[in-house]
Design goal:
With about 140 residues, this protein is of the alpha+beta class. It is built from 4 helices and 5 strands.
């Protein structure tokens, strides 16, 4: 499932810091990380993730099996503003925006049953360590 956020009024460089943290995580884990993160972009990305989960539910996909496949942050429009400088000149200020695209994927994780073999039950012989009285260095004897 996909969800888009266009013309979010923050620079893509700052938004990518938040987006890279949740790539590849489970949806529940991504929500937890976004709630605890003290970045401005974490709130809108959290809403975007909720929207993508709602899109998945609407399609009939269970939210327990959803993972964040990819979060792409691209450059949006740049609003040009000017700031007065010395001697009547002006310098330009770029107000940057971001386009964010979030993609979810459904993964089913099968639990493998662990088989106990006869070799696991047999205890392996361990090395016996004894200290000699004269040299005070450990002597190692291996039982075969």
């Amino acid at each position: 499932m996909k969800a888009f956020l266009k013309n979010y009024r923050q620079s893509p460089r700052k938004v990518r810091l938040v987006a890279d943290l949740i790539k590849g995580n489970r949806v529940a884990q991504a929500f937890t990380q976004l709630k605890a993160l003290p970045r401005r972009a974490s709130g809108p990305i959290e809403q975007l993730l909720a929207s993508a989960v709602a899109n998945a539910k609407n399609s009939g996909i269970s939210p327990e099996n959803l993972y964040v496949e990819n979060v792409t942050v691209n450059k949006g429009i740049v609003m040009k503003r000017s700031m007065p400088r010395a001697r009547g000149s002006a310098s330009r200020i770029n107000k940057r925006t971001s386009h964010i695209m979030l993609t979810l994927i459904e993964k089913t994780v099968e639990k493998k049953a662990k088989k106990v073999s006869k070799t696991d039950k047999v205890e392996k012989k361990e090395k016996v360590v004894k200290k000699s009285k004269v040299t005070k260095k450990p002597e190692v004897k291996a039982e075969n």
